[in-house]
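Tokens as discussed.
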């Protein structure tokens, strides 16, 4: 797959790229906690947002097996409302390079927290409501009202798996999965390798240089560096 990548200096996403299929959708996002987010009671508690979703499709999200990483990615996406940017910015591979690298730093920052604190944060009603009411992937817009006839079997399986993730996480599992992220020095799945799968090219070199000069980019996670070494030797 990586032997057929496009020129990394290409700055813009081709119009026929499969990544466009996962373009973030504008949607209602609950900005408060239950029961105030009941649309029949107080519709004003909903705002329109378009969370960043790494331009990943449902199958690609389904490959993220580390639940802490998955939940961090969802929360990271909620913190970046792409509705505030022009649509042309989502066609800019320099922008996506920056977002993937910033997520790497986000994981490093939050993975130093104690497992119990991480679990407590993800168990908060506010996070659950936001996740269940409006997620960044178009196919996940309304998990509670998902029409099974509109999805393929594989996609539906992944949707249900993602939906159950926040219910399964406990402190014991969190300790193990946090340790895996720490040992890897960053994301196990949503990293440079995933970027190549999504966009069919490597990180934009000019953006890497900018982020290096800012002290943001300090290298890739260990599994990515290992894969690059094995490919070249």
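Sequence:
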């Amino acid at each position: 797959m990586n032997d057929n990548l496009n020129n990394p200096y290409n700055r813009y996403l081709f119009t026929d790229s499969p990544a466009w299929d996962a373009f973030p959708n504008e949607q209602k996002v609950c900005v408060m906690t239950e029961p105030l987010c009941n649309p029949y009671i107080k519709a004003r508690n909903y705002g329109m947002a378009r969370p960043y979703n790494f331009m990943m499709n449902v199958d690609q999200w389904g490959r993220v097996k580390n639940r802490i990483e998955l939940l961090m990615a969802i929360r990271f996406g909620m913190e970046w409302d792409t509705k505030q940017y022009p649509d042309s910015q989502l066609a800019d591979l320099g922008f996506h390079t920056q977002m993937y690298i910033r997520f790497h730093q986000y994981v490093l920052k939050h993975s130093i927290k104690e497992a119990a604190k991480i679990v407590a944060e993800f168990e908060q009603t506010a996070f659950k409501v936001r996740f269940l009411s409006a997620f960044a992937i178009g196919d996940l817009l309304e998990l509670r009202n998902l029409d099974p006839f509109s999805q393929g079997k594989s996609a539906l399986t992944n949707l249900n798996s993602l939906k159950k993730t926040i219910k399964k996480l406990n402190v014991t599992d969190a300790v193990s999965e946090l340790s895996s992220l720490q040992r890897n020095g960053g994301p196990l799945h949503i990293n440079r390798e995933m970027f190549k799968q999504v966009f069919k090219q490597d990180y934009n070199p000019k953006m890497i240089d900018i982020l290096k000069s800012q002290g943001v980019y300090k290298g890739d996670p260990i599994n990515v560096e290992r894969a690059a070494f094995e490919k070249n030797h």
